[in-house]
Amino acid sequence: MKKILVTGALGQIGTELTLEFNRRYGAENVIVSDVNNDVHGMVPDNAFERLDVTDVHALERVVKRHEVDTIVHLAAILSARGEQNPDLAWKINIDGLLNVIRVAMAQRLDRLMVPSSIAVFGPTSVLYNAPQETILKPNTMYGVTKVVGEMLADYYWKKNGLDMRGIRYPGIISYKTMPGGGTTDYAVEIFYEALKSGSYVCPLSPESCLPMMYMPDCVRATVELLEAPTDALKYHGGYNLGAMSFTPEELAAEIRRYIPSFTIDYKPDFRREIAKYWPASVDDSAARANWGWAPKWGLEEMTRDMLVNVAEKLGLDFNI
Ligand code: VAH
User: Fold this and answer.
1) Does the annotation mark 200 as catalytic?
2) What is the pLDDT of residue 107?
3) What is the pLDDT of residues 240-277, one digit of tens each?
4) Distances in Å between the alpha carbon of 20 and those of 16, 62, 191, 272, 313?
5) Is the pTM of this model over 0.90?
6) Which listed residue (142, 175, 186, 214) is catalytic?
7) CB distance 169 to ligand 1 below 6 Å
8) Domain definitions of the chain by residue range
9) What's the pLDDT tens digit per position in 87-133?
10) Under a CB-based contact definition with an 8 Å cutoff, are residues 69 and 108 in contact?
11) CATH fold of the domain at 4-170+214-240
12) CATH class of the structural domain 174-213+244-283+298-314
């Protein structure tokens, strides 16, 4: 039985991934940690450790205390916040990752799961149906840290046989926990504003087409890759993963199918420049071939499900 430590467990992906891990492996086998000790009852069934991943000794103590054999390392500074504080992004995303790698090797852990992102692509990458292998010269610090993370995964796999695996997550959409500091956060915020005020001011431009994924697909993909046999994996740093791609205009049009009066305006900021050199779509044939990836949620069903659940969360009557 796995004994999993989730870092950054109180974040958007971490909270829902923890709930799925609890269902699959038992809460007693899932230790949640976060630098933010405000647990808010989000994961009440799990042992909680307040943990700063830049403190390698604290990390090693937690791993030893709970006899961890797997680390799912979600603690990171995302793209928008990373551009506002690049030094912090490097410190958390690289120094923190190196600590996880050091402890994994010292304690001979079975495997690591470390997210990558579509942020690894940049102006010289192929940005339509972005290939698994292409030029990766991102122009954000977040993207730089994700490329370095992928290279570290390949390096330690080849040099030490460290079984680290990752996904180049697209924008993740969910309603249980708000995202924080990302360029794709607009695709979550828009649902709250559509229901609360009937209008939304988007920080990207109408034609900013980005790959997105609904949380149920994100959680399932993460578990499927975590459980994939090591010899099935051709890549260790980060698999391209596709589900849907849309522009803010296309998302707004889908919302208007349920809220006809909804309006969207645009006030592009620095996040538009970040999104400009991210792919509009990705080729995820390697994930499909190596570990059987197949998305289940598209724009229509995601939009409907988000509106119903965000309305319930806001205590609004919303019948469709
Ligand atoms: C961000 N949601 O916007 C994250 C993600 C694909 C983007 O890495 O930074």
Assistant:
1) no
2) 97
3) 999 999 999 999 999 999 999 999 999 999 999 999 99
4) 6, 22, 24, 33, 20
5) yes
6) 142
7) yes
8) 4-170+214-240, 174-213+244-283+298-314
9) 999 999 999 999 999 999 999 999 999 999 999 999 999 999 999 99
10) no
11) Rossmann fold (3.40.50)
12) alpha beta
